[in-house]
Inverse folding.
């Protein structure tokens, strides 16, 4: 008796296919990331009058233009977190933990991840569409025919630009959240003087927090850039495939950032 | 391989650009010598674009060896540029692969600026000279989507010529053009060849086309792709007869 459309064997086949396909994609993306890293290390200064303006354009597009939105999100998140936690901690007499909560929630987790997701939504998706269209229209082949390395011209500025953008935006996000948290506490007549609030924050912070924050945000930006550029460039595309490729790039970027976030948990356990 | 041979293909199989699994042309043995003008004929999907791409070192062959300027393209180390790309120009069909986000002037300046690390202002004189030479002054600020396909292809030609190429591949440049557009191309290419010969730096031209009608007077060597084979036409009557077999090219874009 043959396999029916809904037989367990068929689902197992499908699962196996997905697992193998996913593993191959991860391998290809890792290779793509290494090639890009090689180009960054060996050719950063090459053709700088052409490449560096592209890098600044990326920072402008993925960083500066998103700053108002990230500040708004930071202020909102600060209000929500401080509003909830101060009320809760005051009830159990544990206001001293407020610094730890802010550092753990905002600086270690929410700031980098939320910033990365906003940058992915704004710049990552537009990268896939732009590069996918270039690939489909033969512009990437044309670059190669001119001796212009597509990784150097298209990917390197995006990788560095997005890494710098996520780092800077996450920093502003954290600052906005911390300040708005104190303003909210002040307006609510919570007995929390600025000096005490910032002293508790400072007590909860260690130098490793700054190192891991920097590393994490830079890597989030690099992951978004590599995944979106990989999906836009790595294989021949037709125009009608671009929307599905964009969807896949968003999923892969989110999964990549969350997995990276989980890896950083190990680092936080040891500090 | 003689000293004048710039490109040599030996026993090469060529696959489709969109379908690498499908071999379109088999066992190609072909040499391009310095200053030659080749016309490559063949029907739709016969593998003209793919063959030109392999000969220009842009795509790898399925089988066989490709040597460009005496260097084996497939065996060169990655750290060493496989082909001196600045010496090979390639104009793609249907609009030439111009970058849609750059203006006409920026497109033409790109190879010059990238390879010589120039500011836009430093490349401007060369761009202006090329636009003037092609009669396209005033179009520098436009983006490719504002141009017809035929004009885009002319801009792509200028972009390829922004650096001093030794070989110029032109993939179906006359496709869909009105007779006046074809005349413009032929006059421009004749003038380019004459100027380069006078400068002591002859340029080789490799032009693909559905038939040889436009190129019969100018090209020196002719070859056709038929039934998966590359065949060089030696006799003039073979060239004339081939046109009868090929039939008219499909009209896909507006003329110029």
């Amino acid at each position: 008796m043959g396999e029916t459309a809904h037989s367990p064997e068929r689902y197992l086949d499908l699962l196996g296919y997905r697992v193998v396909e996913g593993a191959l994609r991860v391998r290809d993306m890792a290779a793509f990331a290494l090639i890009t890293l090689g180009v960054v290390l060996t050719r950063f200064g090459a053709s700088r009058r052409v490449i560096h303006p592209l890098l600044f354009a990326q920072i402008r597009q993925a960083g500066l233009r998103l700053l108002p939105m990230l500040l708004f999100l930071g202020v909102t998140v600060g209000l929500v977190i401080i509003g909830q936690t101060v009320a809760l901690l005051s009830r159990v007499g544990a206001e001293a933990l407020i610094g730890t909560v802010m550092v753990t929630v905002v600086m270690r987790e929410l700031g980098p991840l939320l910033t990365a997701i906003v940058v992915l939504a704004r710049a990552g998706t537009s990268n896939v569409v732009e590069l996918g269209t270039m690939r489909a229209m033969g512009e990437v082949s044309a670059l190669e025919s001119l001796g212009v390395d597509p990784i150097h011209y298209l990917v390197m500025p995006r990788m560095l630009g997005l890494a710098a953008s996520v780092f800077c935006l996450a920093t502003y996000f954290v600052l906005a959240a911390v300040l708005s948290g104190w303003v909210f506490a002040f307006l609510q007549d919570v007995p929390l003087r600025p000096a005490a609030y910032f002293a508790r924050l400072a007590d909860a912070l260690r130098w490793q927090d700054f190192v891991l924050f920097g590393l994490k945000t830079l890597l989030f930006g690099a992951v978004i850039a590599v995944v979106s550029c990989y999906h836009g460039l790595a294989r021949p595309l037709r125009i009608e495939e671009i929307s599905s490729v964009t969807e896949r790039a968003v999923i892969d970027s989110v999964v990549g950032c969350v997995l990276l976030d989980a890896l950083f948990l190990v680092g936080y356990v040891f500090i | 391989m003689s000293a004048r041979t710039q490109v040599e293909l030996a026993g090469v199989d060529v696959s489709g650009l969109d379908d690498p699994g499908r071999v379109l042309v088999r066992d190609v043995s072909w040499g391009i010598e310095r200053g030659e003008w080749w016309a490559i004929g063949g029907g739709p999907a016969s593998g003209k674009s793919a063959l030109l791409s392999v000969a220009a070192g842009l795509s790898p062959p399925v089988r066989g060896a490709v040597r460009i300027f005496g260097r084996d393209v497939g065996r060169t180390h990655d750290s060493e540029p496989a082909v001196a790309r600045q010496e090979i120009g390639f104009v793609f069909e249907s609009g030439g692969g111009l970058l849609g986000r750059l203006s006409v002037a920026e497109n033409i300046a790109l190879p010059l600026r990238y390879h010589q690390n120039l500011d836009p202002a430093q490349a401007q004189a060369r761009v202006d000279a090329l636009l003037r030479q092609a009669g396209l002054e005033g179009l520098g600020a436009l983006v490719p989507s504002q141009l017809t396909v035929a004009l885009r292809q002319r801009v792509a030609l200028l972009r390829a010529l922004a650096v001093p190429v030794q070989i110029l591949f032109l993939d179906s440049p006359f496709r869909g053009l009105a007779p006046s557009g074809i005349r413009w191309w032929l006059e421009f290419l004749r003038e380019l060849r004459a100027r380069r010969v006078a400068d002591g730096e002859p340029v080789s031209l490799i032009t693909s086309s559905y038939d040889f009608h436009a190129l019969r007077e100018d090209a020196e060597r002719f070859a056709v792709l038929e039934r998966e084979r590359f065949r060089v036409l030696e006799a003039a009557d073979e060239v004339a007869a081939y046109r009868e077999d090929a039939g008219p090219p499909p009209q896909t874009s507006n003329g110029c």
In short: Chain A touches chain B at residues 46-50, 130, 133-134, 137-139, 141-148, 153, 236 (CB under 8 Å). Residues 8-269 of chain A form one domain. The mean pLDDT of chain A is 89. The radius of gyration of chain A is 22 Å.
